Amino acid sequence: MEVISNVANAFIGLFNAGGEQFVSWVTGIIPLVVCLMTAVNAVIGFIGTDRVERFCQKITKYTILRYTLLPILADIFLTNPAQYTFGRFVKEEHKAAFYDASVSFCHPITGLFPHANAGELFVYTGIASGLQELGLSVGGLAVRYFIVGVIVILIRGILCEKIFAALSK
User: Fold this and answer.
1) Which one, of 149, 151, 98, 145, lies nearest residue 125 by Cα?
2) Is 165 helix (H, G, I), strand (E, B) or coil?
3) Cβ contact 116:109 at 8 Å
């Protein structure tokens, strides 16, 4: 009889823990994400959609910007999955590489811009909570993730572009 009671308590405990986690998100990360999304949309509104689009078309001429700055801007301003629509600014032969760079940046951006890909927050907050328990700063982790992410998306973009060119022949 005690075994059944322990199983039932463990089962309900699982949902209690899930409920506590959900409440922490409602009072913590969700308002942050909503405020960030509002701010990003306001910035685009202030700058003007046409100006943003012209700027993006200009920077796609340069490989380093096409696979660093464009995916970063797309991830920050449009978030996942709308970020892939920035692919309209690149030539057809660069679309696959842009997608690769952009999708590869979904995780590294969450430390500094959690609104960019809420689905990746589970991973980042898990790692960050471990650092906080050790008394370490999560700010350094966020910056390092971002910098390494930029390097990785540049490499992936260039490699994917070359692979696409070779396969297209």
Assistant:
1) 145
2) helix
3) yes
- Backbone phi, psi, residue 108, to 5°: -60, -20
d(CA 47, CA 77): 12
Give one DSSP letter per residue of 81-132, joined into a string.
TGGGGGGGGS-GGGHHHHHHHHHHTTTTTTTT-GGG-GGGHHHHHHHHHHHH
Contact between 84 and 72 under an 8 Å Cβ cutoff? The reply is no
CA 17 to chain centre: 26
| Rounded (to 5) percent helix, strand, coil in the chain | 85, 0, 15
Q: What is the pLDDT along the chain (169 residues), one digit of tens a residue?
A: 788 888 778 888 888 887 887 787 777 767 776 777 787 778 778 988 888 878 888 888 899 999 999 999 888 888 877 788 888 888 889 999 999 999 999 888 888 888 788 777 777 788 888 888 888 888 888 898 899 999 999 999 999 999 999 998 8
Rounded-to-integer distance, Cα 149 and Cα 53, Å:
24
Only one residue has tokens 């960050």, namely 128
